[in-house]
Design brief:
Strand content: 5-15%
Shape: globular
Mean pLDDT: 85
Number of helices: 17
Oligomer: single chain
Helix content: 40-55%
Largest sheet: 4 strands, antiparallel
Length: 416
């Protein structure tokens, strides 16, 4: 009897020990390898929700592992969430600098020239010029996009070979006009004899640049620009919509979305004054898109930064800018005012929709409708207002680090 009792006690002890071990095992955090394997298994099973859970956990465990971001993007695509896939891949590229992540992003939208440009800029911010060039070359070969060609020029402006390589590829692709334009800029910047010889071979050398360089002829003064409110003009090889004319100055807004990027590089409370968007527009964009004469025509203007009219989020200090984004008040003033901005509809409304939506729709160079940033704050200080691809005004805004927001720069141009 005593032996039987001892045996039962031992059996009970073994059962409890086994149960405890099993519970401990089940509560053990999964390793990065296990998370990766489970994520891949769920992808194969088309269980995209569970795949996303495991790849997201992998990113948290190993934020430098590119496979987590690529897997999460595939899961988002499986769930029909292409925009979220692009966001996770941009985050992955910024964190890892992985060409595999870049390639996954490209394959997500292979015909969007702005994606190639955005990826190249991220590589350059990470001090990785070699993959930046590879991405732009790939994009140029695939799409024959002039925007990509000029972005490539911006990577290495003082290297004459860059201009020659880009021009050679453009000539192969049949875009002689852009090739010649790039060669002329290249010669003006570098004075390269090789560029001059190629221009002569193309029968595109008229000696004008050489005369200017050797004889220092005075640069002709710019001729006055005539404008009509509501019309468009070409300035610095960009088509601009004329929004207003005052005191021999015209307020211009790019007719197309010229680029796509986040409003700010980090998700923090910020105003227009401190945003990386403002720094970019008034430095890199201003210096690369406009020559010296064109920059001289752009007025340094006091920009009024009002609080958000629906939430009261502070707009910050007024600023002095050459290039800026429109505000909520300006987009309503120049595209049509239904009165909703100052008289908010029901309190749960986050988007201003009215009869002027169509007028606010913007497109990129490929004709694709896309959302675009405004400079005004959103509902909270880490949001910025925007216009969606249907022309609705997102008064509550998007997160400032949202990638791919369209840029429609604005400026005041001196007309004389």
């Amino acid at each position: 009897m005593k032996i039987k009792r001892i045996i039962l006690m031992l059996m009970f002890f073994c059962f409890i020990t086994a149960a405890f071990s099993s519970c401990s095992e089940s509560e053990r955090p999964l390793t990065a390898t296990e998370l990766l394997n489970l994520g891949n298994r769920y992808l194969l099973e088309l269980n995209y929700a569970q795949a996303l859970v495991h790849f997201t956990s992998l990113i948290e465990v190993e934020p430098m592992n590119p496979r987590g971001y690529i897997g999460a993007a595939e899961a988002h695509v499986g769930l029909g969430q292409t925009a979220e896939a692009a966001i996770i891949l941009e985050r992955g590229l910024e964190n890892t600098g992985s060409i595999d992540v870049a390639n996954a992003w490209i394959e997500l939208t292979p015909n969007d020239s702005q994606v190639y440009i955005l990826i190249a800029r991220i590589f350059m911010r990470l001090n990785l010029p070699a993959p930046a060039r590879i991405v732009l070359q790939t994009g140029l070969e695939r799409l024959a996009s002039a925007d990509i060609a000029w972005a490539w020029v911006d990577l290495d402006q003082d290297n004459s070979q860059t201009y020659l390589d880009i021009a050679d590829l453009l000539l192969i692709l049949g875009d002689t006009e852009t090739a010649v334009a790039i060669l002329l800029v290249g010669y003006e910047r570098t004075g390269s004899a090789e560029i001059r010889e190629l221009l002569i071979a193309l029968d595109m050398w008229d000696g004008v640049l050489e005369d200017v360089a050797l004889e220092s002829e005075p640069i002709p003064q710019p001729t006055p620009i005539t404008t009509t409110v509501g019309g468009t003009i070409i300035f610095a090889n960009i088509e601009w919509r004329v929004l207003d004319v005052q005191n021999n100055r015209a307020l211009l807004l790019s007719d197309l979305i010229l680029e796509r990027r986040s409003y700010n590089s980090a998700h923090v409370y910020i105003t227009w004054e401190q945003s990386s968007m403002r720094r970019y527009l008034n430095n890199e964009f201003l210096n690369n898109r406009f020559n010296e004469d064109e920059r001289a025509r752009i007025a340094n203007t006091t920009i009024i930064n009002n609080d958000n009219p629906w939430s009261g989020t502070l707009g910050g200090n007024n600023t002095q800018d050459y290039i800026f984004l429109l505000s909520l008040e300006e987009v309503v003033r120049f595209f049509g005012d239904s009165g909703q901005l100052q008289n908010r509809p029901p309190s749960d409304t986050t988007i201003l929709r009215d009869q002027f939506d169509d007028a606010r729709i913007a497109r990129n160079s490929e004709g694709t409708e896309w959302w675009w940033w405004l400079r005004s704050p959103g509902e909270v200080p880490d949001n910025a207002a925007a216009v969606n691809n249907g022309g609705g005004v997102i008064v509550d805004g998007f997160a400032i680090d949202s990638p791919g927001g369209g840029i429609r720069p604005a400026l005041w141009l001196n007309l004389e």
